[in-house]
Every structure is written in C-alpha cells, then in structure tokens.
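As a next step, we paired sequence with structure tokens, yielding the entry below.
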Amino acid sequence: MDDTENGLFIGTKTQLLAAISGTLFAISDGMSYGWTAPMIPYLISEKSHIRTTKYEAEWLETCLMAGSFFGLPLTIYLVDKIGRKKSLLLAAFLSLLSWIAVAFATNMPVLFIARFVFGITANTSFVAAPMYVAEMADHKIRGFLSSVIYLNMLSGLILVYSVGPYLPFYVSPVIGIVVLSLELSVFPFMPETPYYLIYKGKRLEGKKSLGFFRPGRNIDRELTQIVKAVTRQKSEKGNFVDLFVAKGNRKAITIMAILDAGQHLCAISVILMNLHVILEAAGSIYIDSSIAAIIFAVIMFFSAYISSLQVDKYGRRCMLMISLITTAMCLSALAIYFHLKLSGYDVRAASWLPIVAVMFYAASFKMGIGIVPIVLTAELFPANIKAIGMAISDLMYVIGSIVSLQLYQWLNNSYGLYVPFYLFAVSSIVICMYTYFYIPETKGKTLEEIQYLLKDEPIPITNSLVSLVSNSSKSYNTF
C-alpha cells in the first residue's frame, strides 16, 4: 500500500528529521531578531555591564539589517558552490561564534560585529534552508516541511521574549549556543539534496540521497523525473538577466517580490518592533506590554503550526487570501480606533479593541501571508536560477521591512497613528487581489510541473498523470 494512503507523515520520517535538524538555526535567528526588544532597556539602564547610549542601542538593529543586505552576494555564491547542506552548517557555526561573542561581550563594538554576522547568517540560512527542504521533500509534505523554518523562528522569538526581560544577560546567548550545537551535532549526518547532487553531475550520490528520503519505496521513476528536470533546466539560461527575460522566471520573481515585500506592507515589522508603543498609545490598561508581547508571539507560533499542517491540504492561494482578508480587518480596526481617539472621541470603553485586534492579527497573519511565501520561494524558481532568485526575494524582504518602518514613522509623525494602519489595511487587500488573479496553485505539484504552470504551458501528460494518481491517493490525516 502506498504510504500516502496512511497519513501525511508515514514514510516521510527521514525528511522530517532532516528538515527539523537542518532548521534548528531558525530558533537562534528568531532569538537574534527579537533580542533587542528586551535587551535594549537593559543595555541603556544603570544596571548594564556594558555602557551604552540610546544612539548606540539603535544601531544594534541597523547592524542586523546591514548584515542581511550585504550578505546577499555570499548567499548566492555559497548555495551553488558548496551546496545547501554545507551552507546551512556554515551559517550555524558562524551564529554559534556570534552568540559566544555576545555572551562574553564587554563593549559595544563586539555586539555590533555579532549582530552584523547574525544578519549574514540569517540571510544565508533563509535561502539555503527552503532550497534544501523543497529539493528533498515529497510534494505531499513539502508545504509543511517548508513551514518548519518559521515555526522554529517563532519558537526563538517566544524564548527571547520570555527569558530576556527576566533572567541575566548571558542566558539568551547560552540558549542560542545549545540550540546551534545540537544542529551541528545532528545535521551533518543528513545527506545533501538529490536535486543539487544530480545538478552537480553526482547521479549515484543523488540516488542514495533520494533513497534515504524515500525509504522502502521504488525511487526509479522519481529519479528519472529529477534527472530530466535538471537536464532541461541546465540547458536553459541561468544568469541574472534571464531572471527577468524568461517568462517563467519573471513571473516567479514578481510573485516573490510582491509577497516578500508585502509581508511588511501588511505591518508585521511595524507591529513586532512597536507593539509596546502601539498598546500604550491605545491607552490600554488590561495587560502589561511585556506579557502582551509573549502572548503575541505564542499566538503566532500556534497559528503558524496549524497553518503548516493545512497548507498541503487547502493549498497556498486559499490560505493566502483568507489570511490577507482577516489581516486587513484587524488593521482596519486599529486604524478606526486610533482615528476616533485622535479626533477627540471618548474611546475608553473600547480600549480593549487594540489588544484584541493585535492578537487576532497575530493569528491571521501567520495563517497565510506570514508562512506561505517561505513555501513558495523554494518551489517557484528552477534549479539553474534558484540561488539568484531566492537571494533577490530575500532582498525584497529586507527592503520591504525598511520601507514599511520608514512609512510608519513618517505617517505617524506627520498625520497620526491611524494613517499608516489604513495604508497597511489597503495593502493587504491589494495583495489579496493579486493573489487571486495572478498566483498559481502549487499544491500537489512537482517542482517540474510548477515550471510549466509559471510559463503557462501545458504540463506533459506523463507528469500530469503521475501527479493525478498521487493526488487521488492522498489522505490528509496529520496525526
């Protein structure tokens, strides 16, 4: 009996092990992303063991973004030159050294360097990890496994929000060191992806890798399909210009640019980095801002977990559109509340609304727009252009974050807090419309079939029949 008849995780345990062990670094990345929220108040206080000015503290975030930006050329080089697996291991090792530096830091320059390296490793890892997962995963579980990176990142965010404000400075770095040491102990025993090995002409190693990820199954047909797909993709151009000239590549980069930048135009960076300020501006008296931040992160985690189990059942487009509509509703509620408050209306009776809206936002954002892009980014680009495409997608993510934060500050200072939330709500609706009219459904499709979808070409009958049989035999029992 085919393993797809018995559940999502039957016959895919080696894939699950590789995906989890290879993305443990994301816990560290989540911690480094949220680390400044609880640590800056400590660093600028009298209790700090490192003398820090407010201006220096603000540079801690800038260093992280700068590392991510300038790490792009290195990312493009590494994932193709040394492979997806070795890139992940290198990133984990450098992150480990950075946490050690943070733990023993006695001055700000050391923290600046560590934050810059964190940016580089996050950039490398968030390109290499989705590539690794997509290229080794069975298409029936590819969506869930691609979501594991976000689940781990949110786990790191929860950890640093929970530990940072209440325990000594060195505790967060110690947790990061332990997590990365675990990855460096387990993940080296996982094989490189079959796609990468075959792309590099190592067919025998590629077959062994595929056998590891498909235990007890006849892999000959899938191996033949991978060889044909890689051969065809290698025969096509793979330079930077072709990313925008070839129809399929152009459509892929457009989709990813809009979704990656669009995540931030749906206000995620603004809310994550200004949650305390937003709740205080709302005049809310129901919950302490530090507790609210922890609850916010926990809700995002569970929403992402549930969504990751459903993304291969209901599809990418459906979850994106539902998420974007509900996100727009939450942002609109915040905008209306602040608009009424600034206009002089007594909103004390409704001061609970911002808290509820923010928490619903956490759930709705991670339902789709906060998790589907990481799934799509490794599915849409062909092998010969994958590294460049995913690196540019990651660049759009960084640019989207910077633009959204600058828009928020400018509109808030010039017109009031409600204006940027109106803008973000409208952005959510626009992205939802774009999803409906432009983004193809990739659920249940092989990586090769997706390339035909992007080029608006009919899928060859052999691949279509294989996909049809596979889809008809699926059972989506997830437990």
